[in-house]
Amino acid sequence: MSICLFEDFSISTLLPLTHLHPDFDLRSGVFTLRERVGQYFENEALALFTRMGLSEVMAERTSLPVNNPTEPDVFINGSAILRSTLVHAIRESRGEDHLFTHHGILLAATVVSDQLREKLYSWLKTGLIREELVHSPHSHSSLEDFPAPLSEVEHGAFRFPWDLITWNRTLLEEDADFFMPGTVHPSANLATSVELIAADRIFIGADVRIGAGAVIDATDGPVIIESGVQILPQALIMGPAAVGRSSRVKAGAKLYGGTTIGPVCKVGGEVEDTLFHSYANKQHDGFVGHSYLGPWTNLGADTNTSDLKNNYSAIRVTLEGRSYDTGRMFLGTIMADHSKCGINTMFNTGTVVGVGCNIFGADFPPKFLPSFSWGGATGLEEYDFDRFASTASAVMARRDRPLTENERRLLRDVFVQTSAQRNFAS
Fold first, then answer.
1. What is the pTM of this model?
2. Which of 191, 225, 330, 349 is disulfide-compatible with 212, CB 3.0–4.6 A?
């Protein structure tokens, strides 16, 4: 038995986070969806189906088959909100042809017949190889043509970046079941003055170090601290929350509920309802709330994000030049890979920062910063690609991660694809 994890056709409404990643490698809860599939379906072979532009990078990153049709008996949508109810339905239907949908979107399929498998692969190739990025979430209108019964399920898919934030608390609660709450690994080193509140909901992994006076409070939700994490003295972490492997929480940090820190991050200051995907840094004081920070991002000292408008109205955002009403009262900053901001940066509610931006200066920068923007409130210009790539390579090398030729080629492709957005006045 094996699984094909495929990108959804509505990938563009998750931009700019999906410029360099398939939707199933975005994070919500403790895990990315690809990691969550691995937790629910342990020891099963996994193959990936992505946009052609990502195929070489994903093969390099994962060593998994990419866009190479196999004979899976399960297909899972890369943007599906994978919860126990859908997992149970998939398990119960293995051995028969069945489609699982939500409001016309295919979330998963179990397959036994070659006819359905070939139909699904043909459908995927038609949607993904053409690499047309649509600009609104839509139904998979051809589902009625598939030779299999359909079942409607309760929860759908991540459609927009803020959905990852909306679902984070719920998924943190559910992902905690894959750990052993109430466990402190024997190799963990906790100062005698560390306080664990509701310790039966706290997991502390191998080689974790927690400094004097730190407080881990799981009263309102579980706290997962994975292996190799260092938590410096006087830090506060309130659940539900997760700190990924080899990350560092700075002294005096205040991490409130709904916070996910992925692997190899450094986080300090005040944080609430925010996701740090991986290799992201916010080391100093300043507030970040209801935000999503992609890999290799860095916030300068005293950076602050507004996540609530003064009139408490719904927040509008711009994604790739198109405006959306989020319907949310709380939303901070969405920042894609390799973007940085200088000290004392202020981000307005619902700010979206593309890939590879360098933001600095006084006052609020624009709420939409196209990929490879350089500047701030007083004006923007295009970030020279070679200068950007040199910096990105140096940053990654500090974490023993080379910028590969395939990754550089992908970044160059994004630079070209987004050039029309950088129509800055001279």
1. 0.95
2. 191
